[in-house]
Design a protein that fits this description.
The structure is a single chain. With 283 residues, the chain is α+β, with helices and mostly antiparallel strands. It has a domain of 138 residues: Orthogonal Bundle (Phosphatidylinositol 3-kinase Catalytic Subunit, Chain A, Domain 5), CATH 1.10.1070.20. It is built from nine helices and eight strands. Helix 3 crosses helix 8, helix 5 runs antiparallel to helix 6 and helix 6 crosses helix 8. The N terminus is likely disordered.
């Protein structure tokens, strides 16, 4: 077999082939293992790999061949919609390689010269290695201790907006490693751009929807906007400020999601399932 030499960069077509081998649980040659890592997603890890595209560093993510819907295009569209709702996100795109869709998200832990920017996850900020517990309130409390004062107000509001958006888009994979912080030279730590925001299909369960991180001040994980509103003070927001933010984001989300997803070329056949995931629980 022709394996890439050490230090070489694997083309996206080769990455897709390697990702398929992982999915099929086939043995992956050691020469390929360094290109692909499994994500820490609780909902089933997707293979991902660092790559260079158009001269810039990105992370490439590959959907499974038998996914319930087009995860690559949906993740790209979801980030665009999050940006419309006021959330800071990296540049992203979905491209087609060898008749397969690939999701690309630009690396925010690299500067324009490719040098590493220090990054930690919220799990590290909280001093834990768990990913199946914690709360948005715990993150906010630690942000008050460790993030730069010049960024704190904006970043606490951003974290609250992410909580709201995760409820709106039914992203229950919001664990501590899917929130991060970058170190700004000369200033200190701040919340990183949002990433790994992926809607989850509606399972039709009679049980209330829940996020991985606790939502309400009472520790409840129920994914309702009312529950989120109870935690406004820890984010430095009054109830009225929180309500206005929620109303604005909900209006943008419901008013734009179909157009944004169509512009991002999400297959029309996925819209019915997305509508079930997005709309049925909004209250």
């Amino acid at each position: 077999a022709n394996y890439p030499p050490h230090g070489a960069e694997l083309d996206l077509g080769g990455m897709i082939e390697a990702a398929d081998r992982i999915e099929a649980e086939e043995t992956l040659a050691p020469e390929y293992r360094r290109f692909l890592v499994r994500g820490s997603s609780l909902g089933g890890a997707k293979p991902k790999a660092p790559t260079t595209y158009e001269g810039r560093p990105w992370i490439a993510k590959f959907g499974h061949q038998y996914d319930a819907w087009n995860t690559c295009r949906i993740e790209n569209a979801t980030l665009k919609l999050a940006q419309d709702c006021g959330i800071i996100v990296p540049e992203s795109k979905a491209i087609t390689v060898a008749a397969r869709d690939v999701f690309l998200i630009e690396r925010f832990d690299r500067d324009p010269s490719g040098n590493r920017i220090p990054f930690i996850s919220a799990a590290t900020l909280l001093g834990t290695d768990r990913i199946d517990g914690g709360s948005y309130q715990e993150i906010a409390v630690q942000m008050r201790r460790y993030t730069a004062a010049s960024f704190l107000h904006q970043d606490l509001k951003q974290l609250f907006q992410r909580l709201i958006f995760n409820i709106l888009c039914n992203n229950s994979d919001d664990h501590l490693r899917n929130h991060g912080f970058i170190h700004v030279r000369g200033q200190g730590w701040r919340l990183s751009p949002a990433y790994d925001i992926v809607p989850q299909p509606d399972m039709g369960s009679p049980e209330p929807r829940r996020l991985t991180l606790a939502v309400g001040m009472d520790g409840s994980r129920e994914a309702t906007l009312t529950n989120a509103l109870s935690s406004c003070p820890v984010f430095g927001l009054t109830q009225e400020e929180g309500r206005r933010l929620i109303d604005r984001m909900k209006a943008i989300f419901l008013g734009r999601w179909q157009r944004v997803f169509a512009l991002c070329q999400v297959p029309t056949k996925d819209f019915s399932a997305l509508s079930q995931a997005f709309v049925n629980h909004l209250r």
